[in-house]
Amino acid sequence: MSGMVIQARPPRRDETTAHSPIGADRTDGPSVRIGALAPLSRPGWAEAGRHLLAGLELAAHEVNDAGGIAGRPLELVVRDTAADPQRAAAAVDELARLGVAALAGEFHSVVARAAATRADALGLPFLVSSAVLDTLTEKPTERVARLAPPQSRGWQIYADFLLGAGHRRIAVAAEPSVYWASGTRILRDRLAARGATVVELDMGTLTAAAVCNELVARRATVLLLLVGHPEPAVPIVRSVRGDRRLAEVVIGAPAGQPEFAEWAALLGDDGAAIPFLRYLPERLGPLGARVGTALRERLAEAPSFVAFEGYDTIAVLADVLRSLPSLTSLRSDGADPDRAGIAASWPRVAVEGTRGEIRFSRTPGIGVWQWAGAPIQVVDRDPAAPDRFRVLHTG
Question: How confident is the model at residue 326 (pLDDT cuts 50, 70, 90)?
């Protein structure tokens, strides 16, 4: 979904090495290997990475329990990107040498862009799970597909939500980043076209207290957090919530910081009523409900939309792999698999995912194969029960 960097708990175990999902012993022959990228350690958003990996692994387990890929086990080869674009590009090189059939995953947009650019150069198909930055590759490519909606679509919907609520003076507290700059531009273009104003607050120079003074001086009715979590997002929220002058100011976080449990743990009631974007339908169908229950058991907490994105990623790749005319070239001994055949399959995908039927198409201005039907919600944590989410707007 994003390019933000936060501190979070490191993975519970060594999740950066190759491993086969449970059920692999029910299949025969060499494994079909998928490279999986996720931020699993600092300074990456490790909580998001943990949810992403849980979804990837659950789907792989289920594929193997159902007989694998034409009787062969599906194996995830996991690499921790730690929110580092160079580390991600190096992981792509390594995974390509290991003979993976395709790449899956990643959460941070700037990291996914580096990985996608390198994968495209190597001829390695990549199904991106969560990163939303519109420009994932330097030029249009047939090899990369994406499940998450592009940032321009999601953040325009968020801007429409603000306008519908009557807001016309919006302040944006932003850190330097390609991702945050892109988000600011999308918001400004959408809001300015309808008579609203956007003021940028440079978090490279301002303290949380100074942000409060700026909001008063600018008479802003909304403060959007385009910053990392927990620093400086948490101190900013605490300062604004504690300033009586700003009792009517709405805090927003379009990038989704309030989605995860750590947000609620750190901020308590102060973390409620902060609208953010998430990519779930209003109601999950039977598959989504079943997967949601399994993910909750695996994570020991409510699954985020990122976990569902991970599950859907493997569901799509498994369907694509099963559709190949022959699996004889899919080997785990370093030989090149049928990567061209996988990439050529994107426009033929029609898979029931946890959040709707997944099909890829070409979207104007987007250089990768895009799931255009990804659901988008604006939600917040209910002040009456911060563990419960309220759907405020859909797009």
Answer: low
Q: How far apart are CA 67 and CA 75, in angstroms?
A: 13
Please confirm whether the linkage preceding 364 is cis (ω < 30° from 0). no
Distances (CA, A) of 140 to 94, 124, 135, 136: 24, 15, 9, 9
Q: Contact at 8 Å (CB) between 317 and 102?
A: yes
Residues in the chain: 395
Q: What is the CATH number of the domain that holds 82?
A: 3.40.50.2300
Query: Do residues 104 and 26 share a domain?
Result: yes
The answer to whether the beta carbons of residues 63 and 318 sit under 8 Å apart is: yes
Q: Verify that 205 and 93 share a domain, yes or no.
A: no
CB 212 within 8 A of CB 240: yes
Q: What is the extent of the structural domain holding 201?
A: 152-277+377-394
- Tell me, what amino acid is at 283? R
The per-residue pLDDT for 29 is: 76
How does strand 276-278 pair with strand 250-252? unpaired
Is residue 163 domain-shared with residue 258, that is, in the same domain?
A: yes
Task: Give the pair of three-digit tokens for residue 214.
Answer: 């700026």
Q: Residues 6 or more apart from 292 whose CB is under 8 A from it? A: 284, 303, 308, 354
Task: Give residue 330's pLDDT.
Answer: 54
Q: Read out DSSP for 13-52?
A: S--SSEEPPTTGGGS-SSPEEEEEEE--STTS-HHHHHHH
First-to-last CA distance in the chain?
A: 17
Concatenating the DSSP letter of every residue in 153-199 gives HHHHHHHHHHHHTT--EEEEEE-S-HHHHHHHHHHHHHHHTTT-EEE
Query: What's the rounded mean pLDDT across residues 107-126?
Result: 98
Alpha-helical segments (H) within the chain: 46-65, 85-97, 109-122, 151-164, 178-192, 208-218, 233-241, 261-267, 286-299, 305-323, 339-343
275, two tokens: 């609208």
82 and 25 belong to one structural domain: yes
Among the listed residues 121, 84, 90, 126, the one whose alpha carbon sits nearest the alpha carbon of residue 105: 126
Contacts of 95 (CB under 8 A, 6+ apart): 35, 77, 79, 103, 124
φ/ψ of residue 222, rounded to 5 = -140, 140
Q: Are 256 and 148 in contact (CB under 8 A)?
A: no
Per residue in 36-58, pLDDT (tens digit) is 999 999 999 999 999 999 999 99
